[in-house]
Amino acid sequence: MHAYRLPAGELSAALGEFAQQSGIQLLYDSTLVSGRRTPGLQGGYSVEAALARLLRDSELEALAVADGTFIVRRLPKPAAKEEPREIRVPVPAPAMTTELSTVTVRDEDFQRLAAQGVTPVTEITREQIDASGYATLFDLLKAQPGMQVANQPEAMASSSDANFRTGAAGAAAVALRRLGSKSTLFLVDGRRIAGYGLAQDGSGTVPDLNAIPLAMVERIQILRDGASAIYGADAVAGVVNVILRHDFSGTEISASAGESARGDAGMQQTSLLWGTRTESGIGLLLNVSYLHADPLLGEQRSWYSLDQRRQGLLDLRSLYSFRGNYLYFGDDGGVRVAAAPGCRTALAADGTCLLDSARYTTLQTGKVGKSVLGRLDVPLGESTRLHLDLRASDLLQRQQAAPSGATVFLPLPREVSAQDPFALLYSFDDIGTVRERTESTLLSVDAGVRGTLGDWNWGADASVQRNRVDDVIDGLVRSDILSIDGEDYSFGEAPPSRALREAMAPQIRRRGRTSLDEFSLDASGNLFDLPAGAASMTAGVEIRREGIEQQPGRELTAGKLLNQPREYAQSLERDSSAAYLKFDLPIVERVDASLAWRLEKTAGFAAHATPVLGLRWAPLDSLVLRASRSTGYRTPTLLELHQPRGVPASSTVWIPQSAGPCAIELATADGQSACQLDISMGGNAALRPEKSVTTAFGAVWAPSATFSLSVDLYRSVRDNEIAAAPLAYVFDHPQQFEGFLQRNGDDQLVAVDNAFANLARTVTSGADAEARWDLDAGNAGRFRLGLGLNYLDTLDRRIAPGVPVSRSAGYADAPRLTGVSSLRWTRGDWSGAAYLRYVGSYELEPYADSASPCPQYKSALGKCAVPPLLLANLNLTYGGIAHWTFTLSVNNAFDRSPRYYDEAAGGYNAAFEDAVGRYYTFRAAYRF
């Protein structure tokens, strides 16, 4: 017998609160309870009686399928004579396309076999988020099996490059199936999110996971399958749906602080979560969070260096140093290098002056983040509800790189001797490091109404999103200024004045903005009865407008900065619309089918249809077999279509003589000519959408209420991939690239105006596996074990027809095996968790049989392959004091330092390795 006090109101909210008060697990399809009301519950009842009262007059019932586990389902029809099976439970179709999973699990993360759908869905619950030990959504997602880092906040972290690279600095993005960020669709509460304000490169934007504080996330759903039929373009590899915390009663205040075992990389985080529901059913929620994180520089970690002799590897510190190195003509016709007088970085034994750019480089950005989430939920009659969501965030980040470097050619006397230097390899150390400050702001407003009409559920939703980034860069050196007001830059002989420094390295500004406006209508319900159950349908229409605006500063548009390409101002917009249908058909007993079809029209392109077919068969009560075949597509981005043509760069290119003659021919050999050509790159308005086909087969075995295992095999083929056209292919197929080859009045080849083209192809295949095991050990407590694995069998890329395929699985940044496992324990007021991340070994070569094989000296040391990575996060929580919980977390508990054998990357691969080391975090939360 339990004492309950649940007010009348929305059924879904009441069931969630009931599950928490009762300590039970409730499983139900969200469409069953959407729009339904409950009379509430007051007094003492058994669990079964309380559920019956909550579901009174709702045409629903709760069926016990195991101790402490109930499934909510429709009441059987009076004519039905067969008793319901304990495990075989039909699950109706989802009410709207924003639900990736057909079942909501309360209080536990274990999903019954009855909840398994046609396509595999991984759900990361709030409990799993807390157990992981990660502080950001980006860190949590990049640790998931099979995830690829598509963009990281530290734009320079993995390259140790002294030359700053402008781009989507500050953005954090991941991707599924190693098909790139443009093929993974990210949703927040089922709605697309606007891209980061700064373009990642010349081809488009990425979603910024840093704009979503992890403290605001309720759970995450990952659909690892092509889903363009339901969710539209960009869902080629799958969908990641981040569901925010909208359903909460009470007030929770939390604060946490962290620091590495070395006393640096400090972090402080606070959050306030408040929610209530009035007697009239109005729901209110407010979530406010604040984050401050100190930066971590390369000089704070001894292992991060371009000098990797400690691992038996090479010293690749740069000759572009301070005060630099002179180049001389040698007596043997070669070039001799010697340090300029007064080397102030590091003088090597061979007499050269070296600079270790890794020591200057940011390993972890400094962050100051502020976010707010608000929600208003209002009943409109008995079967309709209105909601209004507001989300805003502001994130300030700082990072830096080594000073700019340049080759300075010196004036030579008429009679040149070996004692006269002809060039200086120099780093502008006295001008300062390259420092960047990005501030990204996000505003998202969503309003919607949902209700029921007879047996049908319907909804309408409208949203507006704006993402803006202000980027400020100091330390980039102009190539055209070395003096001002009579003062000459002395290349380190004397410190430059402030005026000269500011003239040589003016503050650079960039601004970017993206926008996304959407409107959608959807409806779902049962169509007719089949022998095995009701056939259901989901239908909907969508309209959206996307826009991007890029405003580089004057110095960037002038193209006068060292080592930096010219940038261009751009402002682009376009509209899209779509209609979709999805049918769920219980064909015969134990066999279900799912059929979806979507028609989408984007401005400038013909309408495109994408069908999906899925089958589900339960030959046993404990076994489900499933298969699906889905088609996908990705419309070219606005930048891929309309990127302005860059400034031509003179290059020496070998071309077939049939493509000539060229104006400047340097050499000929074997039917080819070495020509000096001006090469430029731009967008291509004639691009076509990328297309993909994904086939998947899987099995789910759940022999008991405490154990389940799923294995899914997949193969995805993506054609018409958009990439820069390879020059060799352009020359061999000039008829396909009309206008690319530029000739003078004498019909001589002088330039190539290159562009993006639909030439590439990628094939990827592998297997996903997940296991869940729940063990009650009596007085020792309760244990929950979770395991997720991804095995990458194939990752084959071909840049153009007829070009050899690059087999990349198991090579650079594409390990074959990745996985995570978690062990959670609860006993009384105590709970604990161990979270392990595994990354398998992979070769350093970019792909099999590449033109850049592992060098002999690495092979002799056994360092052609990166060793497996195992990182462990541990935490312990105590909740024995009324209203309080306290958590101590230790990330990278074994203090594993990076082991990566690429000297040019400083011995560090930011996609997988942890740069901070052992890290301690203490969190206190008060709830009332």
UniProtKB/TrEMBL annotation:
SMART domains cross-referenced by the UniProt entry: STN
Pfam families on file: Plug (PF07715), STN (PF07660), TonB_dep_Rec_b-barrel (PF00593)
Domain Secretin/TonB short N-terminal: 24-75
Subcellular location: Cell outer membrane
UniProt keyword annotations, A-Z: Cell outer membrane, Ion transport, Iron, Iron transport, Membrane, Receptor, TonB box, Transmembrane, Transmembrane beta strand, Transport
Keyword Chaperone on entry: no
InterPro entries: Beta-barrel_TonB (IPR000531), Beta-barrel_TonB_sf (IPR036942), Plug_dom (IPR012910), Plug_dom_sf (IPR037066), Secretin/TonB_short_N (IPR011662), TonB-dep_rcpt-like (IPR039426)
Membrane topology: Multi-pass membrane protein
Presence of the UniProt keyword Coiled coil in the record: no
Family per record: Belongs to the TonB-dependent receptor family.
Protein name: TonB-dependent receptor domain-containing protein
Organism: Dokdonella ginsengisoli
